[in-house]
Amino acid sequence: MAARTQLLVVACCILAALSNVAHGIGVNWGSMMSHPLTPSIVVGMLKDNHIDKVKLFDSDSWTVSALAGTNIDVILGIPNDQLKKLADSYDHAKDWVKENVTKHLYDGGVNIRYVAVGNEPFLKSYNGTNLKTTLPALENIQKALDAAGHGDKIKTTVPNNADVYESPSNKPSDAVFRKDVKDVMLQMVKFLDDNDAPFMVNIYPFLSLYLNADFPFDYAFCDGQGEPITDKGTQYTNVFDANYDTLVWALKKAGAPKMKIIVGEVGWPTDGSKNADVKLAKRFYDGYLKKVAANKGTPLRPGHLDVYLFGLLDEDLKSVEPGMFERHWGIFRYDGQPKFPIDFTGKGQDKMPVAAKGVQYMPSQWCVFKKNTTDMKTVAAQVGYACSNSDCTSLGGSSSCNRLDLQGNISYAFNMYFQMKDQDVESCYFNGLAEIVTRNLSAGSCLFKVQIVSAGGRLGGSALGASLLAGLISLLSLL
Ligand SMILES: *[C@@H]1O[C@H](CO)[C@@H](O)[C@H](O)[C@H]1NC(C)=O
Ligand SMILES: *[C@@H]1O[C@H](CO)[C@@H](O)[C@H](O)[C@H]1NC(C)=O
Ligand SMILES: *[C@@H]1O[C@H](CO)[C@@H](O)[C@H](O)[C@H]1NC(C)=O
Ligand SMILES: *[C@@H]1O[C@H](CO)[C@@H](O)[C@H](O)[C@H]1NC(C)=O
Ligand SMILES: *[C@@H]1O[C@H](CO)[C@@H](O)[C@H](O)[C@H]1NC(C)=O
């Protein structure tokens, strides 16, 4: 009997250890794209690449259902535009839980682990829009989860941008919550602590580099080449560790020194800006994934890091307000093709990850500029129209298609619009300046894309960013 109990104990420990090992790296699966891949294809990609944790930005029923029976841990999302409604009405929170959580929790259903309430709701650039609604929405959702009997297994949290805390001296130990959000952050930390829920933070070494021309380049990467910074005898060789430990300090000062931290987003874009390319993305992920696999953690929190990479796929409808790189965070392209070798296990194998299987493409044809046109004034207007209603973020100064000649630029814009419109013949007219061809104009890193056949999707068309507009104006001035 005793021996049997012991055996059971051993078996339990082995199982516990195995389940720890199994839960490696997570990814963010965003859906701000005009032509999303079918959810079952994406779930296939996750399985083929042994990714067993996924974070969503909403709770779309088709997507969530595709994760049933997979053993993939799921973080559901609640977009910011739903916070007010959920804050104002507990009944609505109960409906939300019933429709988006309880429905998926049958035997063999979906492994829902967390509900992420809002997405970076306190971002400085939002000017306090969600300041009053986020915490009440968080409380209502957790209360509704508890009432439905899911509260022990499913916790709520709020994905925060790392801009909710700062350190005037850049040393982690000088951490403070940002002044305008300090009160709400302290209340949130207390609520999360009382509920045994984690703090979620998005940390972007790329943005440190992007936003500060003097930022020490190597310090953005985790391969030990950064010039160390010392804080109370602790050495930091990369900005990720320093940023994470700034949060650890902020939590400690807020009375929650042991609060679990989840890195909700971390990653590197591959296009649309200086330093956004596949070579540097590979360097970042190589160093970062090795670090995660080694269970080294950070100086203040040694051990396992709970991490969700951003992101799985490129999203051509993301706002380019922060920069043109926004649409190029994918480890995989829009069609589920890998961009660079990456080893999610952190063993450093130089291998391409497994591409999406079963993707259906539209015919191999492109919309291009008819070379014999001389009416350049009309061309400029047409290019402006094409780009405002599609995605020309790969045309910018440091982007993958920056070496196209003028004709190439125009063709690129026309083709992006044509593909956005599902290759509709009428969308390749442009006042008679365009024609459909079967010759692939892709060259080097510049891809003239052929869109995929997609069942879902939001309507295309999105605002131009200021910098892209500037690029276009410079193009127009050449005409
Ligand atoms: C459930 O989630 C979906 C997708 O995020 C959302 O559109 C819907 O309104 C939610 N249901 C309720 C009852 O709020
Ligand atoms: C925040 O304020 C700035 C400056 O006043 C403004 O340009 C921006 O549009 C505002 N953003 C939001 C989300 O309200
Ligand atoms: C321009 O090219 C098109 C075919 O691409 C042709 O039909 C047309 O006649 C050409 N026009 C001139 C002025 O060369
Ligand atoms: C192509 O377009 C980009 C951005 O729109 C611009 O920066 C570049 O100068 C253009 N190239 C030529 C040759 O016109
Ligand atoms: C066009 O060429 C690029 C390489 O230059 C390739 O990656 C892409 O698959 C090609 N597209 C089609 C539809 O053949």
List the helices and strands and how they pair.
Elements: H1 2-22, E1 26-29, H2 39-48, E2 53-56, H3 61-66, E3 73-78, H4 83-88, H5 90-100, E4 111-117, H6 134-147, E5 155-157, E6 159-161, E7 165-166, E8 176-177, H7 182-194, E9 199-202, H8 205-211, E10 229-231, E11 234-236, H9 239-253, E12 261-266, H10 278-293, E13 306-309, E14 366-369, H11 376-388, H12 406-420, E15 434-437, H13 466-478
Parallel strand pairs: 1-2, 1-13, 2-3, 3-4, 4-5, 6-9, 9-12, 12-13
Antiparallel strand pairs: 7-8, 10-11, 14-15
Bound molecules: 2-acetamido-2-deoxy-beta-D-glucopyranose (5 copies).
Describe this structure in words.
- With 479 residues, this protein is an alpha/beta fold.
- It folds into two domains: 20-327, TIM Barrel; 366-476, no CATH class.
- It has helices at 2-22, 39-48, 61-66, 83-88, 90-100, 134-147, 182-194, 205-211, 239-253, 278-293, 376-388, 406-420, 466-478, and strands at residues 26-29, 53-56, 73-78, 111-117, 155-157, 159-161, 165-166, 176-177, 199-202, 229-231, 234-236, 261-266, 306-309, 366-369, 434-437.
- A nine-stranded parallel β-sheet has the order 5-4-3-2-1-13-12-9-6, with helices on one face.
- Helix 10 links the parallel strand 12 (261-266) and strand 13 (306-309).
- Helix 5 (90-100) packs across helix 6 and helix 11 crosses helix 12 (406-420).
- It is globular and about 70 Å long.
- One 2-acetamido-2-deoxy-beta-D-glucopyranose (NAG) binds at residues 364, 440, 442, 450.
